[in-house]
Amino acid sequence: MPKKNIRETDLYAPVKRLLEGQGYEVKGEVGSADIVAVRNDEEPLVVELKTGFSLSLFHQAVDRQRITDVVYVAVPRGSGRNFAVSLRKNLHLCRRLGLGLMTIRMKDGHVEVPLDPAPYTPRKMPRHQAKLLKEFARLAGDPNRGGSTRTGLVTAYRQDALRCLNFLRKAGRAKAAVVARQAGVENARRIMADNHYGWFDRVETGIYTLSINGHRGCAEYADQITQISNDRQMPDRVAGIRH
């Protein structure tokens, strides 16, 4: 069945069949819930149906948690990489919200339940926090506007590359160890060797100069170079550099 022709009511029968097979009495559209299932003296089970993941689906499901802790969301199962990515992300969201998740294969009505409702306590990841704080500390000034797309963002890595760029603009060419010391960039050798921005040329072993793109970069990123120079004073005069 093409996805564009799927209706929420098409999801009802497969879910009802699954729950009845587990001993529930099932009824549709009870109060504000799409599906309510009752078994013995257990808490009622509620399922919210949607033809795809959406914010309104999660709003409704979270609202049903005021009735019961056993709340599922149910959507048609898609195919391909896009659905797999969406499923993985929404599984994580369901887990965070304490919701269960069902997917329905529309061609045969098979229902999979990859997640049951359960309380969730976020697990902190110290390594990720340390990485975030390290990037925060390394980033000179506040070069990015919050909410911007990731493309073109100024990272601490780029600022270090700009420090190397600025130093070589003044020095002409220099050993990587000298660039690291004078520009204040501990990983200068790796930055210039990897050359992600195409700004550097290696003229001899361990000795670098600016490429044609590097000279262009000096003009293109002049404002950022000024900002990081003011934040961490860089030498204006290059003297005593040994090549």
Describe how the helices and strands are arranged.
Blueprint: H1 8-21, E1 25-30, E2 33-38, E3 45-49, H2 55-64, E4 70-76, H3 80-97, E5 100-105, E6 110-115, H4 126-138, H5 156-171, E7 173-175, H6 176-183, H7 188-194, E8 200-204, E9 207-210, H8 212-220, H9 222-231
Helix pairs in contact: 5-6, 5-8, 5-9
Question: Can you walk me through this structure?
Answer:
The protein folds into two domains: 113 residues, Trna Endonuclease, Chain: A, domain 1 (3-Layer(aba) Sandwich), CATH 3.40.1350; 78 residues, Winged helix-like DNA-binding domain superfamily/Winged helix DNA-binding domain (Arc Repressor Mutant, subunit A, Orthogonal Bundle). Helix content is 43%, strand content 20%. It has nine helices and nine strands. The strands form two sheets. Strands 1-2-3-4-5-6 form a six-stranded mixed beta sheet, with helices on both faces. Helix 5 crosses helix 6. The termini are far apart. The relative contact order is 0.08.
Q: What is the structure about, briefly put?
A:
By secondary structure, this protein is of the alpha+beta class. It is built from 9 helices and 9 strands.
Give me some keywords for this one.
single chain; 243 residues; alpha+beta; Trna Endonuclease, Chain: A, domain 1; Arc Repressor Mutant, subunit A; 2 domains; six-stranded mixed sheet; three-stranded antiparallel sheet; elongated; disordered C terminus
